[in-house]
Design goal:
single chain, 248 residues, alpha/beta, Nucleotidyltransferase, domain 5, six-stranded mixed β-sheet, five-stranded mixed β-sheet, 7 helices, globular, binds beta-D-glucopyranose
Length: 248
């Protein structure tokens, strides 16, 4: 069965059709810059464009960069504050004319990694951490997702962790890979002290270049790059497009 996923990030909104038998995109993904300000109206217009680009008429899964409970946004770290309390499902369904279901972006990436990627067949406590504009987290216990963990917002050394260690902080602070990896190491070591994960899967754009940061990590558990790299969000979103599979 072919499904359809949209992954919304701080800088881009990416979409593509996904084969749910293999977890692979069946066409090249299409990306439109995330509008600024990232309001419900401006983002809904992009969701519509993405769906129309692929002439997709079925239901749509969306990976969204906020806490998502019953389709409603409960936070807004890197998007417009007017999202808080907004029914994302309803806004995107109305704008696109398709049945839309939403899940947190890191939870979506985690679902995809657990099914087809670096977490496949892994039991115990597995943590998927995505480094992008912010830091997202997807926590799995024997393959079952604990949604909306938001570990990017742990307070560490007096800072919101994602402000220091997100991939965007490397650009903003003009850091070398080594200096950035030092911050990631501090963050992941702290996360290990709190959750004792059996495996940490690092996702986001940086998962395409593990040679740049992985050698600098000295974290007390196994750390591996995501294997679906930047497509995990689209694939995970496609997994929940069908209401029957909705998780949050
Ligand atoms: C948000 C999370 C999101 C993460 C990655 C954080 O700022 O609070 O909900 O998963 O960024 O986009």
């Amino acid at each position: 069965m072919i499904s359809f996923g949209i992954d919304i990030g701080g800088s881009g909104m990416k979409a593509g059709p996904v084969d749910l038998a293999t977890g692979e995109l069946t066409a090249d993904r299409y990306k439109i810059a995330t509008p600024k300000p990232a309001t419900p109206a401006s983002m809904a217009a992009v969701v519509r464009q993405l769906v129309e680009h692929f002439e997709w008429s079925g239901s749509v899964g969306v990976a969204f960069p906020a806490i998502v409970r019953n389709g409603v946004a409960a936070s807004a770290a890197n998007i417009d504050e007017s999202w808080i309390g907004t029914d994302i499902d309803a806004v995107f369904t109305e704008a696109s004319g398709r049945d839309v279901h939403v899940i947190n972006d890191a939870d979506a990436a985690g679902l995809a990694e657990m099914r087809w990627g670096a977490g496949k067949g892994r039991a115990g406590v597995v943590l998927v951490v995505t480094f992008g504009t912010g830091i997202g987290s997807g926590l799995f216990i024997d393959g079952i997702l604990v949604p909306n963990t938001e570990l990017g917002h742990l307070e560490l050394d007096g800072h919101d962790a994602e402000q220091r260690a997100a991939a965007s902080a490397r650009d903003r602070d003009d850091l070398s890979w080594k200096a950035w990896a030092g911050r990631v190491n501090r963050y992941l070591t702290h996360v290990c002290a709190l959750f004792s994960p059996d495996l940490i899967i690092v996702g986001g754009g940086v998962s395409r270049r593990p040679d740049k940061w992985l050698p600098y990590l000295d974290v007390p558990t196994e750390v591996v790059p995501a294997t679906l790299t930047n497509e995990a969000g689209i694939v995970g979103a496609a997994l929940i497009a069908d209401k029957a599979g909705r998780l949050t």
